[in-house]
Design a protein that fits this description.
Helix 11 links the parallel strand 24 and strand 25. 29% of the residues lie in helices and 32% in strands. By secondary structure, the protein is of the alpha+beta class. It is globular. The chain binds glycyl-adenosine-5'-phosphate (GAP).
């Protein structure tokens, strides 16, 4: 039977997750205790990859621009900040519970279903005299056996049995009636059970600070920030006044955010703890829309520079009525993950919504004095807001590749290769002596390792055959490998003395290069 595209993508995702664990990119948080749902730990290679991404983002958006300043705000957030921003009252998802399995589902993510609803008014057990009066129903979709409804209903009512020795099969159902329904979202797609009515579930992590934290003191309430943006708005005035800026200018921040997601899923894609890379770009009101277009293009270029090509990205222009309450224009930049096309970043024109709210709630003037026009105004804001962990996942998915290659002896094998762009690759170069039992080769290789270490991430390896060592580096995406051989030592004459073989990951081609040129060659290639 041929695999469907969706099955192929599931297998692909499984391979990616397995490689990430096997090679130390990503581990489940608290795995030895059964795991902490929605939280992930980055291992040695994942940590390097993440640093490379964050450093490049910072370099492009802060260090190489005169009009953007960086900041690093606190994670613990004053409750008034989040009341003003609307997060305390409104940052929620509609959530419902399955009456049978107790699974919690996002109401707005349930696919509509059609079929026959079997309803009951209660259940009883004649022998013991037990009865329960409670309405319940089950959806039976087309092609499913109607007895499924009765089995599911008996399981549901058996939860209320006082005598747990009674088998659910012995329960009598009361008042069965049926009704055809179309496009309902009131039933669990997994088991057909009725769901509770949707309730709003606030996504913020609440905590209590200080000595009165245990006394139920409401003023001790603080939150883990759900986005980095709010610290930027609350510090806007301080940053502007201490840096003699003029409009338009931005404040950039990279940092952790926390959301108690109802259904963390798709590996690291929807996590409860994640990092954001956000810019709030302050401008005059009449510049907002044009700057939103500019930022969209700039951000698409950025993704190309880190190895996510334009053709794998989708731009969604969010229509009126579907945008966040604060936005006059929003583009979602999406990536074609194996599990579907999903959001990487939002570029939103937030108008002056946030500064206005903070001015109103804090009672502090947040106007900006524009030296050029000599007027005081509340700037508008364009916000490119990217997810660091989502970008890492996209980089990993984009890089993963398997190809069939033939070795020297004509044997075919599958080469797994992470085709990271060199500037993102966790390890930039592998350095190998051809043989580990030749002290001169080892000494030279160590010398090269030492020379390169202050400039880039080097991995020294002397174990196994050279082909195996190349494969190990291919699997983690190391773009270059350098081998010290007998030619390096001058055994084939002076011409090749102090040269090494440099092997390129994607083409697997090799060339010789003088050791004296190695550093600059690598630095140019990974810049
Ligand atoms: N300040 C605007 C803001 O936070 P958002 O669309 O809620 O907007 C921005 O989040 C980005 O943060 C998303 O595009 C996504 O990349 C990332 N993000 C949001 N929730 C996330 C989660 N639960 N797990 C991982 N990344 C998340």
């Amino acid at each position: 039977m041929s695999e469907t595209a969706s099955e192929k993508n599931t297998v692909l995702m499984e391979k990616i997750v397995s490689l990430c664990k096997r090679r130390g990119f990503i581990f489940q948080s608290a795995e030895i205790y059964g795991g902490l749902n929605g939280c992930w730990d980055y291992g040695p290679l994942g940590a390097e990859l993440k640093r490379n991404l964050k450093e490049y983002w910072w370099r492009k958006n802060v260090q190489e621009r005169e009009d953007i300043l960086g900041m690093d705000g606190s994670i613990l957030t004053h409750q008034d900040v989040l009341k003003a921003s609307g997060h305390v009252g409104g940052f929620s998802d509609p959530m419902c519970d399955c009456l049978l399995s107790k699974a919690r589902l996002r109401a707005d993510q349930i696919d509509p279903q059609s079929g026959t609803v079997y309803s009951y008014t209660g259940a009883s057990h004649e022998e013991s005299g037990w009865t329960v009066e409670r309405e319940y129903s089950v959806l039976v979709t087309e092609g499913q056996d109607e007895n499924k409804a009765r089995k599911t209903a008996r399981l549901y009512y058996s939860q209320f049995l006082t005598d747990k020795q009674i088998s659910p099969k012995k329960i009598e159902l009361a008042g069965e009636s049926t009704e055809s329904v179309e496009n309902t979202t009131s039933y669990n797609p997994e088991n057909g059970s009725l769901l509770t009515e949707p309730r709003e579930f606030n996504l913020m992590f609440k905590t209590h600070m200080g000595a009165s934290a245990d006394d139920g003191d409401e003023s001790a309430v603080a939150y883990l920030r759900p986005e980095t943006a709010q610290t930027i708005f609350t510090q806007f005035k301080n940053v502007a006044e201490t840096n003699r800026v003029k409009l338009p200018f931005g404040i950039a921040q990279i940092g952790k955010s926390f959301r108690n997601e109802i259904n963390p899923r798709n590996y690291t894609f929807r996590s409860r703890e994640f990092e954001q890379m956000e810019i709030e770009f302050f401008c005059r009101p009449d510049e907002g829309l044009a700057l939103t277009e500019e930022w969209l293009e700039r951000r698409l270029t950025f993704y190309g520079e880190i190895g996510i090509p334009r053709e794998h990205l989708h731009v969604l222009d969010i229509p009126d009525g579907e945008r966040a309450h604060y936005s006059d224009k929003t583009y979602d930049i999406e990536y074609a993950f194996p599990f579907g096309i999903q959001e990487l970043e939002g570029v939103a024109y937030r108008t002056d919504y946030d500064l206005k709210k903070h001015r109103e709630c804090s009672g502090k003037p947040l106007e900006f004095f524009d030296e050029e026009t000599k007027e005081k105004l509340l700037p508008h804001v364009v916000e490119p807001s990217a997810g660091c962990d989502r970008t890492i996942l996209a980089l990993i998915c984009e890089a993963f590749d398997e190809e069939t290659v033939t070795d020297d002896k004509g044997k075919e094998e599958v080469r797994t290769v992470m085709r990271f762009t060199p500037r993102m690759a966790p390890v930039k170069v592998g350095v190998f002596p051809l043989l580990k039992n030749k002290p001169e080769l080892v000494a030279k290789a160590r010398e090269i390792q030492k020379m390169l270490m202050p400039h880039l991430n080097v991995f020294y390896d002397e174990t196994a055959a050279i082909g195996r060592r190349y494969r190990r580096q291919d699997e983690i995406g190391t773009p270059f490998c350098v081998t010290v051989d007998f030619e390096t030592l001058g055994e084939s004459g002076d011409e090749l003395k102090d040269t090494v073989t440099i092997r390129e990951r994607d083409s697997m081609s090799q060339k010789r290069i003088p050791i004296s040129e190695l550093r600059n060659f690598l630095l140019d290639a990974i810049a």
